[in-house]
Amino acid sequence: MTTETFATVTDGVVRAVLPLSDDGLISLDDCDRFTELLMSPPESAHIVVIESRAQSFCLGRERSAATVHELPDEVDRLVAVNHALRNSPLVSVARVHGDAAGFGVGVAALSDIAVAADTAKFFFPEVNIGLAPTLVLAWLPQLVGRREAFRLTATGAAISAERAAALGLVSETATAADLDARVDAVVQELRRHNPRVHREIRDFLRATDQATEAQATELAKSRLVIGSLRRQS
């Protein structure tokens, strides 16, 4: 499968359909292709809508490492997806029509905007196989706080889309009947604005993610001057 077989571009919008197994899992090879799409998108692309056509949105990723020597490569490929979601030149919008677990929650949560059907559930099942999801814990506390991150990963309990929105795992919810219309409205709202400005916003958010308030303010001052000069040129 190539990136072209699960991604199409229309009027600056890429629709990326995650290829999932019957169990709702994505393969590592398709993780690689997803990373490639995010980091090297078509030249005309501005926004990527991430979705799937399975019953669920995504229930995780396939575990293919058979030996201890293969595990580091598997982990690196998963890290690359997280990195791509944060560093892609595209604005990402997740259309979460069904349940999301583990890796699938990460795709939704690390997208710039995520709209979830109000019937969707979100959970981290790794604890049930005796695994601490440390890749998840690298970003989850920043969104939901330490205590919620612990509870979600330590219990594996599912939460509702409404709760996921309250915690910041998704941006908003919609009924199943209204989901497509709401995603389309978000995309159109974004498309009205300059892609360069969106890239600058995302770049600044990345740069200040771990910065102190003072550091963020100093960086903001310099970026604002540069941005204003660019706007006038």
UniProtKB/TrEMBL annotation:
Alphabetical keyword list: Isomerase, Lyase
A UniProt-annotated Pfam family: ECH_1
Listed EC numbers: 4.-.-.-, 4.2.1.-
An annotated Gene Ontology molecular function: isomerase activity
Source organism of this protein record: Mycolicibacterium chitae
Listed name of the protein: Enoyl-CoA hydratase/isomerase
UniProt-listed CDD domains: crotonase-like
Family according to the record: Belongs to the enoyl-CoA hydratase/isomerase family.
Enzyme class: lyase
